[in-house]
Amino acid sequence: MSDLRNYSEPLAVPFEAGPQYDWDQLVQEDRVHRLIYTDPAIFRAEMSRIFAGTWVYLAHESQIPNPNDFVASQLGLRPLVVTRDGQGQLRALFNRCTHRGARICRAQKGNAKSFACAYHGWTFANSGKLLGVPWPDGYACDFKDAKFNLVQVSRVESYRGFIFGTMNRNAPVLRDWLGPVAKPIDEWIDRNPGGKVRLCEANRLKFKGNWKLAYDNSADGYHVVFSHASLLAMENRLHAADEKGMSFYQGKPDDAPMYVAYFGNGHHFKDKRPNIDRSQPGALWRIEGVFPGMEHFAAELRAKLGDKAEAALDLASSEPVNINVFPNLSILGNHIQVIDPVSVDETNTTWYGTAIVDEANALGGTAEAINAMRMRTMEGFPNFGEVDDAANFEEIQKGLQCPEDEWVYMHRGLGIPGRAKTDAAGTITAPATDEIFMREYMKEWKRLMKSEPDLAVRREV
Amino acid sequence: MSDTVKDPARSSYYVDESFYADLVAGFSDWQRDDRAIVDATARDEARVLIHREARLLDRNQLQDWLGLFAAECLYWVPATPEGGDPRREVAVSFDDRRRLEDRVYRLSTGNAWSQVPRSRTVHLVSNVELFRGKDEATRMVRSNFVIHEFRAGETRHLAGWYGHQLVRSGKDWLIRVKQVTLLECDQNIRNPSIIF
Fold first, then answer.
1. B103/A384 CB distance under 8 A
2. H-type helices in A206-276, by residue range?
3. What are the CA-CA distances from residue B165 to residues A181, A225, B71, B73, B162 (Å)?
4. Are residues A292 and B94, on separate chains, in Cβ contact within 8 Å?
């Protein structure tokens, strides 16, 4: 690659061919093979073909609002520093010194114009450019050579505050790749004042299982009453007569107006909003489970805001959507969940909380009270729901150790005429417990695993 | 207000602005030598309470464990080492009386799958130090812990420190706030379904 002169152009990176499986055999119409969850070679291939070959969520702009802010992230297993440089440009730098390879930044977040490697002191600007090395007179080379600047993800784009990156030269622009999933994302953001949220601390979980087990779950309406039996019982402990929390799954979920959808490019969606009559404000508040501070702050908001209080209370309540952007982003209620693969059988799921930001003071000074409630409503599901899902994911990973029982089935709804519908834009919708979202995203997974993406990185000149 | 409204197990009327403000103030800058209570009897009272709490958790006597808490109480596991401001940040857990009873109830249902099978734990508590609280009826206790946990064929250890805010109730002390700072509180934690 030393013959390439213009380093501002993306540099092609060698593509690791990976395992030579018959992908059509591993991913079938109604089932997938256990190996896609258990084989370390497939996992390594995913880290290039998926977690570089398609757009991957990296960070949220509210984590780096100011020039020179940075936040740690990862692209597959590659450690990144996502920066907003002095000119405001977003970049995803490899957190890897170009000298001997050490990470140049150990902090999770902060504000810095430059990063100095702790090992030999090579120092890089937050644009990725090498600023200097100690005692340069000991080198015969020209440090203006761009090969000494940090590698960065060749394409970084942002949509409504969500920052994505890919190394695939042939990927469509971000907005086109999102396609129809942009609509529920827009609706999710625009319900907040000014169309903004601020990421805050997170409920951070880990499970001993493959990352796809989390993505298989995130639009799954079939598991709810079983996996979350204890949460449903808990929600009804004090409110047997009320339709609280996830109660609308009780009975037969397929008969309810909620639905599951597939948008293409791996993106899927579980939309529970149609279950709720939102013609009047306060609809979300009425079904919100009980939480610390509920009675006090609700009374205070009603005293302060009068007939505007119910809409404000809805902002403290969970939005009943699961918006899943392949491969690693799920917008769940008010959470932004990020799925980070660690190894073939270990995954981190980080449930970032979101706070409202009322810059125009549209809420009469009640934003702090709303956020104090919203923090508490968000803690409910990770504490009392997700822990049980994660335990079930771990049981799957253990069960899949049986080599003689090869298949994972995802055929609920398949072959029933009229059950799924496709609209003019190609969006497929089906009843809430249908596994069509999994069948369809697995097709996209297979397409990416079959393809040899044209991967490229970039360096500053 | 009716009695139902004033029952902290049914209504969270007491988690208000002043509760949060007192909480943040009470858990700031309290582990100071000039606030230490070195009286052996007083320290032993606190130690006995915290050791008893550990035993009740290890023996899964969760209703008895709830009885160690004041009616208006908090179980707080921050998501950052310094605790942060719970009005602006989510915590690993932030349970008032009602949510704490919800937690205990959920664990008793038999289908809280993250606790099927149930963890076997020993809570090892040491380094107990007693500090003055905001008034004579309030005391602060710092202790270190290691939780040795065995579940589903695997053993792990979770370590950190506790901050207990105790309030006097007659001749006894009750737990008003139990703050649990896990060493790994700001990292991804596997199966955080036990009571720490």
1. yes
2. 212-217, 224-227, 229-235
3. 48, 38, 13, 10, 10
4. yes
**Cβ contact, residue pair A200, B91, below 8 Å:** no
Per-residue confidence band for A95, with pLDDT thresholds at 50, 70 and 90:
very high
* pLDDT at position A5 over 70: no
Q: What pLDDT does residue B37 have?
A: 97
**A201 chain-B contacts, CB cut-off 8 A:** 79-80, 84, 89-91, 186
Given this model, what pLDDT does residue A18 score? 72
| One CATH from 1.10.287.90, 3.10.450.50, 3.90.1150.10, 3.30.420.40 for B17-182 | 3.10.450.50
Distances (CA, A) of B90 to A291, A352, B79, B87: 13, 8, 7, 8
And the tokens for B114?
Answer: 């993250």
Are the Cβ atoms of A383 and B84 closer than 8 angstroms? no
pLDDT under 50: residue ranges of chain B? 1
pLDDT of residue A247: 67
What number is the ipTM of this complex?
A: 0.96
Q: Does the pLDDT value for residue A7 go beyond 60?
A: no
| A230, A350, A383 ranked by CB distance to B188: nearest | A350
For B90, which of A293, A300, A353 is closest by C-beta distance?
A: A353
The structure's pTM equals 0.95
The answer to whether the Cβ–Cβ distance between A388 and B192 falls below 8 Å is no
Which amino acid is located at A335 in the chain? H
Yes or no, beta carbons of B113 and A392 under 8 Å apart:
yes
A290 vs B103: CB contact, 8 Å cut-off?
Answer: no
Question: What's the residue count for chain A?
Answer: 461
Chain A / chain B CB contacts < 8 angstroms: 138
User: Quick check: helix, strand or coil at residue B104?
Assistant: helix
Cβ separation B113–A349 shorter than 8 A: no
A81: its two tokens: 């520093």
pLDDT grade for A6, boundaries at 50, 70 and 90 = very low
pLDDT in tens, A271-284: 999 999 999 999 99
Q: Using CB atoms, which residue from A205, A340, A369 is nearest to B189?
A: A205
Q: Which amino acid is at A131?
A: L
B-interface mutation test, from A109, A223, A234, A342, most B Cβ less than 10 A away: A234
Q: Is A291 in a helix, a strand, or coil?
A: coil
Measured between alpha carbons, how far is A263 from A425 in angstroms, rounded to an integer? Answer: 9
Terminal alpha carbon distance of chain A: 15
Cβ contacts (< 8 Å) between A368 and chain B: which residues?
87-88
Distance from the Cα of A229 to chain B's closest Cα (Å) equals 6
Distance CA A210, CA A206 (A): 11
The overall average pLDDT reported for chain B is: 96
Amino acid letter, residue A387: V
Question: Given this model, what pLDDT does residue A20 score?
Answer: 82
- Which of the residue ranges A318-327, A450-459, B14-23 would you say has the lowest mean pLDDT? A450-459
